[in-house]
Amino acid sequence: MSLFWTVIRQLAEIEAMTASKKVITREEWEKKLNDVKIRKEDMNKLVMNFFVTEGFVEAAEKFRKESGTEHIDLATITERMAVKKAVQSGNVEDAIEKVNDLNPEILDTNPQLFFHLQQQRLIELIRNGKIDEALEFAQEELAPRGEENQSFLEDLERTVALLAFEDVSNCPAGELLDISQRLKAASEVNAAILTSQSHEKDPKLPSLLKMLIWAQNRLDEKASYPHIKDLSSAKLEDPAI
Fold it and tell me: Would you state the pLDDT for residue 11?
C-alpha cells in the first residue's frame, strides 16, 4: 500500500516538472517508501477483507486472533461458501435452498440472480441427459419469466438450443456447459449474499494491485525508478538506465 501511494505521489510530482525522463535511485525510492505511513490497523482490515470476501474461514479466524481485528461471524462465511460450492458442483437446487435458509429476501428481491440460478439448473439437467425433465422445467419455470423479460428470454433460448445438437461442440451456445458457466453463477450468488450481509462483494486487495500496476505504467513513461515486476514477491528491481 505504501508503494502504491509513493508511485502516485511521485507521478504527480514528475508530471508537474519538465517532460524529460527522471532517474530515481534505489536509495531515494526507499526513502520515499519509508516516508509514507500506513496504519497497521488499516493493513489488517485489508487482509481480513480479502479472507472474508473470498471465504477463507480458517485463515480469517487465525488472522483475527493474531492481529486482534474485530470479531467476524465465521458461521456466515461457512454457509456462504457452502452455497458457492453447491453451485460449482452443479447442485443448484441445493444451493437455492441454502440461500433461502440464509435470507429468503436475497432471491425474492433479485429476479435476475434467481433466473440465472434456474438457468443453471436447466443446464445441469441437459448436461446429465435428462431431456424430458429439462424441457418440462424450461416450459414451467423459465418460460414465464422469459415472457416478462427480453434478456431472460434470450438466455433461455440459448440454453434450450443445446437440446438441438447431438454434439454440443457444434452448438453456438456450447460454452454454457463449460465449468466457467458454473463459476460465473457461483460468483454472482456469492456477491449477492455478501451484499445482503453488508459486506463488499469484491475484495479490495486485487483492486489495489491493479491500481498499482496502472500507476507504475504511468510513471514508467516519466521516470526510471525501482519498481515491482513480480507482485507475488513484491521485490523492487533497479531501473534500467
Answer: 60
